Amino acid sequence: MKIGILTSGGDCPGLNAVIRGMVLKGVISYDTEFVGFRNGWRGVVEEDLMPIVRHDVRGLAKQGGTILGSSRTNPFEGEGGGPEKIQAMLDRNGIDAIVAIGGEGTLTAARRLYDEGGIKVIGVPKTIDNDLAATDYSFGFDTAVQIATEAIDRLRTTADSHGRCMVLEVMGRHVGWIALHSGMAGGAHAILIPEQPQTIEQITEWVESVRDRGRAPLVVVAEGFKFEGMEEAHSHKGLDAFNRPRLGGIAELLAPMIEERTGIESRATVLGHIQRGGEPTAFDRVLATRLGMAAVDAAYNDAWGSMVTLRGTSIATVSIADAVGTLNQVPQARYDEAKILFG
């Protein structure tokens, strides 16, 4: 079998570990041949590919980013887009199947290619946001949380020095997992997530409670957080290739509001793409490697249209449709647990 690999959407630590796991498993267990599509679905629609052999993945598990490059290209658009043209390209190059490593947009496109064109595709869940249903964790999330936690630790020392309120904005799109985990790990005094709208009055109450105890308040806010009454998350950066709003900037709105209402000098820090960079944590390296190996097994089991997933500590296979139909949101119990620590 000849398998084409692509990494699509936002990059994250662990992508290279998936590629390495796939190639080693395929070569050792099945004598598989691999090619990589450059820059995600763009490489598929533009027929831009490269061979990947065992030597190419040596020492790759610890390397951040992706050796294949990534993009947010929609495979149904462009001169070479659509199921029929993509299948013709695969046939020309003797490629039997595609393993698509990506998040919600990437996997939705992969499933649609399978449903509408019968293209043999396997999905591997990739997102720092941990927002994909049908998997307990996705690789990249643990690294993003670690980076955000380190930022909280650093902001705390400068906040204490000046008696300021620090507002740290983290990624997550429409779920609050990064904010929740990093906020708890870093001892944040308030954690604001999309699943739990709050009023500015409640937020300032938490902040003032911290100030009254002689501490410098630290607030972690997810980029998709909404105040009560807001219908959509704050976005001023337009749409991506899948017509989803590019979120970000809520901390820069929140910090002045806190300062105005409390009189506490407040500063906003938007962590942004730092959360996507650098070397993956040990947890993400192991998870990514296991998912890559399982994706090859899924291909040889003809599990087309499916996605490999983490269930507890075991790797399983589920339909991609089950993964992209709903978001993996922070449940009420988890937020109530963290909320006890606020203020």
UniProtKB/TrEMBL annotation:
An example molecular function term from Gene Ontology annotations: metal ion binding
GO-annotated biological processes: canonical glycolysis; fructose 1,6-bisphosphate metabolic process; fructose 6-phosphate metabolic process
Active site: 129
Superkingdom of origin organism: Bacteria
Phosphofructokinase domain sequence ranges: 2-298
Sites where the protein binds substrate: 127-129, 164, 171-173, 223, 267, 273-276
Site feature (Important for substrate specificity) residues: 105
PROSITE patterns, A to Z: PHOSPHOFRUCTOKINASE
Alphabetically ordered keywords of this record: ATP-binding, Cytoplasm, Glycolysis, Kinase, Magnesium, Metal-binding, Nucleotide-binding, Transferase
Quaternary assembly: Homodimer or homotetramer.
Family stated for the protein in its record: Belongs to the phosphofructokinase type A (PFKA) family. Mixed-substrate PFK group III subfamily.
The name this protein goes by in its record: ATP-dependent 6-phosphofructokinase
Organism: Agromyces aureus
Lineage of origin: Bacteria, Bacillati, Actinomycetota, Actinomycetes, Micrococcales
